[in-house]
Specification:
Helices cover about 50% and strands about 15% of the residues. With about 220 residues, the chain is an alpha/beta fold. Strand 1, helix 1 and strand 2 form a beta-alpha-beta unit. It is globular and about 70 Å long. It binds SN-glycerol-3-phosphate. SN-glycerol-3-phosphate binds next to helix 7.
């Protein structure tokens, strides 16, 4: 499973990328607004922080506008992945951009029917939003299961990029289902590594080691 960070905070990305565990980054207009920086500048900086795909979202809603904005974003760095909304114009742009060799992440996916069309359009990634599904009383993970089944039925190459992740259990459930990628806030990646018994066990080891009076030099 690939692990992406869902943020436009370059400093957070740099800090966690040092672990070697970060395979890519996803951004969206709301995350860019939260970061408070120039969009093109921050995408270019982020693309230099991780070797993998960095999703940068168009804001045009028409095909021609999407294609024009995609050309600008693709020019920022070779690992920029164009994020397009799951609309008919977005799917048309997906087909055109993938034909040109661009990476495309089709976002705001909330149904298996939509995900089927994203695969038909040849998207590199589809981003089903599990947290926002959970927020309105639906089971976001059931959507991931449905998409996995459909994609395996037809051997679609589109990768399932689980998005709108709220906590480590979303990541674990996505991994059990066989999703290809999970994108998450930096805090969730830290939570994945954290366990109180690990902390307690390490403290006990270090306390006993200190009693030996030895050092490893
Ligand atoms: O960036 C796409 C997605 O992960 C955002 O989800 O629900 O946290 O805004 P959300």
């Amino acid at each position: 499973m690939k692990l992406f960070l869902d943020t436009a905070e370059a400093a957070e990305i740099a800090a966690l990328a040092a672990s070697g565990l970060v395979d890519g980054v996803t951004t969206n207009p709301s995350l860019v607004h939260k970061a408070g920086r120039n969009f093109l500048e921050v995408v270019k900086e982020i693309a230099g922080l991780v070797p993998g795909p960095v999703s940068a979202e168009v804001v045009a809603t028409d095909y021609e506008g999407m294609m024009a904005e995609a050309r600008v974003l693709r020019g920022l760095a070779p690992n920029v992945c164009i994020k397009l909304p799951l609309t008919l114009d977005g799917l048309r742009a997906t087909k055109a951009l993938t034909a040109e060799g661009a990476m495309v992440n089709v976002t705001l996916c909330f149904s298996a029917a939509q995900a089927l069309l994203a695969a038909k359009a040849g998207a590199t990634f589809v981003s089903p939003f599990v947290g926002r599904h959970d927020d309105v009383g639906f089971n976001g993970m059931a959507l991931i299961e449905d998409i996995r089944l459909i994609y395996d039925n037809y051997d679609f190459a589109t990768q399932i990029l689980v998005a709108s992740v709220r906590h480590p259990v979303h990541v674990l459930e996505a991994a059990k289902i066989g999703a290809d990628v999970a994108t998450m806030p930096p805090a969730v990646l830290r939570q994945l590594a954290s366990h109180p018994l690990t902390d307690r066990g390490l403290a006990a080891f270090l306390a006993d080691w200190a009693k030996t009076g030895q050092s490893i030099r």
